[in-house]
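Hi V.,

You were right to ask for the full record rather than a summary. Here it is.
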Amino acid sequence: MKGKISALSVLFLAAALCLPGCKGNVNTAATGAEGAADTREAAKEVFAAMPGTEKPERDEAQKPKAPEAGEEGKAEGTAAEEAVILVVSFGTSYKESRDVTIGAIEEAIATAYPRYPVRRAFTAQKIIDILKERDGLEVDNMAQALDRAVADGVKTLIVQPTHLMDGMEYRDMVQELENYNGDFAQIVVGQPLLADEEDLDAVAKAVTDATSSYDDGETAVVFMGHGTQAPSNQIYASLQEKLAEKGFENYYIGTVEATPTLDDITAALRGAGKYKKVVLEPLMVVAGDHANNDMAGDGEDSWKAVMEGEGYEVECLLHGLGELKAIQDIYVRHVKAAMDGLNQ
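Predicted structure:
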């Protein structure tokens, strides 16, 4: 009987989730906290109750053949590669940002663990298609990356997502891994960027250190997050509280597709009544379409245009979080936590 996995992270409870099976184990590793056993049981119950979490049957005869190794981010697989790190990202079609964010995170992980081949997978098929058609660049999606690993004889798969939180994309990724639970001796999954209090502290420090020159009392530093309809959206409020707790009262966090909204942010800035300038920066791993268009674009509903309409001088910083070494270090730490869950 194959082991069943649970993808649900209970807010700020970091637990190593490892469910036994006769062959494959998928371990959703966190950064370690007390009460892991209770969290595992609670996570299993909650996840089992979620709609659409039933494991679909996979017809072995219809399993796609692993494609030939391509260009960017694809490791040449050999049977000798018994353990592989797979870095899973949403992806971006913006090459300049991709290289210094996703690429930099992958490089940091590869440097920290030189004995392990590091492979890449994107979850956004639309982006994968754009890269192939526009740039002739092939990047594996999750199924291709996993099938390639199986074909290469990989026994242990260490999966590290670059997702910001345990949202829908993260859960979809873990569900996809469940389909391959019996194809590997063990699968372990690292936590997303913001998984616990230690991560909140580290991210708060990283973003404020990087923007400290703007914190002059007359400038509001406004971060644009993506937002999600999943319960994990509250991580934005938690990070905002962390910034306030550390005395960074001129920092604000909004989202494109959830709450806090842009209207919430403009109201807060008006209420403060002291700002002459607004600095906008994405609270996203990459500075992709949302950053370039929804935040810094020339459209009348972009965050830049709205802030200018409010009478502020506006400066846009098109830098993804993945550019920061401190952020890369968090992902490296999460890989280590995942590896610590091997054979447990």
